[in-house]
Amino acid sequence: MLVNNLILGITGNIASGKSTITEALVRHGAALVDADRLARQVVASGSPVLARLVAYFGDGILRRSGELNRERLAQIIFADSHAREELNRMTHPAIARLAIERLQQLKNTPGIPLVVYEAPLLFEAGAEGRVDQVLVVKIDPVVQLQRLMARDGLDETAARQRLAAQMSQREKLARADHVIDNSGTLEEALRQVDELWKRLVVP
């Protein structure tokens, strides 16, 4: 029997609540491929990708254990667009290889109602071709700033710096097949997830 499960890409800007929406879909029964987890794998201690990052950024991005200090690297790349581009150039090909392999495996596995690919940089990485449809998690900019500051312990200047480093929400929404507005309560967001699940999965 030919299996061709739908792959739904989930993206949105920082602190929009992508993971909350993804987790709700997983609870419904979706299978998950998480780009952030893949990114952690490709820069694991001893990996060739991590070695290239250290050669470029210096060993100041490492913890004493030899693992990547993600917070330190984030400070560097959000303050320097060229550094951010270099990071993406060194990491995205390895992430892409893992993502494509896992998505294709799940796409051809019987009994999976939906495959979700949570990828914050789905559009920026040119990865929308890996998915069949795209869900963008939308958020009111004022709420987004407040959530980001609270979540990451950032002051307003640092938070705005990270927001400015991303593709605009408007551009992402223009390229979306589906939108969930996560500006309100959790209950409101989960209700939208239920409705989306019915549209995509329930016959």
Topology:
Elements: E1 7-11, H1 18-28, E2 31-34, H2 35-42, H3 48-57, H4 70-78, H5 81-107, E3 115-118, E4 133-138, H6 141-152, H7 156-164, H8 169-174, E5 178-181, H9 186-200
Parallel strand pairs: 1-3, 1-4, 2-3, 4-5
Helix pairs in contact: 1-9, 2-5, 3-5
Structure report:
The chain is α/β, with parallel strands linked by helices and about 200 residues long. It has two domains: about 120 residues, Rossmann fold; about 70 residues. It has a five-stranded parallel beta sheet with strand order 2-3-1-4-5, sandwiched between helices. Helix 1 packs across helix 9 and helix 3 runs antiparallel to helix 5. The mean pLDDT is about 95.
Helix content: 40-55%
Strand adjacency order, main sheet = 2-3-1-4-5
Instruction: Please tell me how large the radius of gyration is.
Output: 18 Å
CATH topology of the largest domain: Rossmann fold
Main β-sheet description: 5 strands, parallel
When the domains are counted, the total is 2
Class inferred from helices and paired strands: alpha/beta
Taking the alpha carbons of the first and last residues, their distance comes to: 19 Å
The oligomeric status of these chains comes to single chain
Order of helices and strands: EHEHHHHEEHHHEH
Shape: globular
CATH superfamily of the largest domain: P-loop containing nucleotide triphosphate hydrolases
- The poorly predicted ranges are none
Number of helical stretches of at least 4 residues: 9
Strand content: 5-15%
Determine and state the CATH class of the largest domain.
Alpha Beta
The average pLDDT is 94
CATH architecture of the largest domain: 3-Layer(aba) Sandwich
What's the number of extended β-strand segments?
5
